Amino acid sequence: MASLTAAMIANGGSKNLTYDEIVAQFYPMAAGFGWQADKEMTTFVGQTHVDNLPKYYSLIRQMLLEPGFRPEDFSRLKQDAINFLKTGLREGNDEELGKERLYNIIYAGTVYENHSMGKVSSLEKLTLQDVKDFYAKNYTQANLVLGLSGGFDQKFSNELTTDFAKLPKGEKMVQKIAAPKLSDGMKIDIVQRETRATAISMGFPISVNRAHKDYAALALVASYFGQHRSSNSYLYGRLRELRGLNYGDYAYIEYFPRGMFQFDPDPNLARSQQIFQIWIRPVEPQNANFALRATLYEYDKLVKNGLDQQTFEETRGFLTKYVNILTQ
């Protein structure tokens, strides 16, 4: 519901302008407007040259505060979401499918169980009125956080604040997410596919998020063990560099979708519940069992032995530089 509503706002036009008309006006400004919806937050992001700010803002203000909610846009975007789940994820991206399946298993019966785009069966039942009701209930001042950066003055900041004060006050959505309940022991789930390679995702829930005192320490360990898209990581060295098993092997303590397309995680995917996850990129099927056993062996060594002082200092030194890339 959240994803479809966000798509209707960012890709569905305003009350006065169709989506095609808005895109036509964005084009000469080399500007755009994007959205991202996850379990606990929805984010809209826009960027334009400062010279075009007044015209650009007039467009996105309409989109956000006066969405068009046209039936034809609803039909198009709902079908896009269904096609993404049916074709893009299930049939066209085994690696992302495996990572999302891991969340299905760990968070079965909770709000984290399904993909943020929803379930096909649920999407098929949604109506345009459902989207309008969701917008009216959740797009309120109580739930809103505004952020600005770059070239703007106080006058524009005041204008923005005044405009969005027109949203209903509402009540802040506070939802406590229950921790998953898992049975003891290892659980293995095999998704049978007619493919030439085998991808592996494994993990378990953790109580650490960014508010936790141990977040920085655990983030450092995850970086050492499996920094995303980095040849510095230990797991990369053992599985790819030493044995040539696959393209890469990574570890995470936060949700990181679309990792196969990106070097850095998207911001604004904050979750109150997280998992420790290891992602083994595709190996030849005959090597899958060995890759799994080797990964578990290396993980077990990490848990038993931890990091020595030199490794700790080297990883901390890397992260003190890498953090500047993430905050650009």
Features:
5 strands, two-stranded antiparallel ribbon, mainly alpha, Cytochrome Bc1 Complex, Chain A, domain 1, globular, three-stranded antiparallel sheet, 328 residues, 2 domains, 12 helices, 45% helix
Q: What is the string of SSEs from the N terminus onward?
A: HHEEHHHHHHEHHEEHH
Q: What's the number of helices?
A: 12
Number of domains: 2
Helix content: 40-55%
Sheet-strand content, in percent, reads 5-15%
CATH homologous superfamily of the largest domain - what is it?
Metalloenzyme, LuxS/M16 peptidase-like
Overview of this protein structure:
With 328 residues, the chain is mostly helical. The chain folds into two domains: 163 residues, Cytochrome Bc1 Complex, Chain A, domain 1, CATH 3.30.830; 129 residues, 2-Layer Sandwich (Cytochrome Bc1 Complex, Chain A, domain 1), CATH 3.30.830.10. Helix content is 45%, strand content 11%. The protein is built from twelve helices and five strands. The strands form two sheets. A three-stranded antiparallel β-sheet has the order 3-5-4, sandwiched between helices. A hairpin with a 4-residue loop joins strand 1 and strand 2. Helix 1 crosses helix 7 and helix 9 crosses helix 12.
Short structural description:
The protein has 328 residues and is mainly alpha-helical.
Give the topology.
Elements: H1 2-10, H2 19-26, E1 32-37, E2 42-47, H3 53-65, H4 71-89, H5 94-106, H6 120-125, H7 128-138, H8 154-164, E3 198-206, H9 215-226, H10 234-241, E4 249-252, E5 274-283, H11 288-305, H12 309-326
Antiparallel strand pairs: 1-2, 3-5, 4-5
Helix pairs in contact: 1-7, 9-12
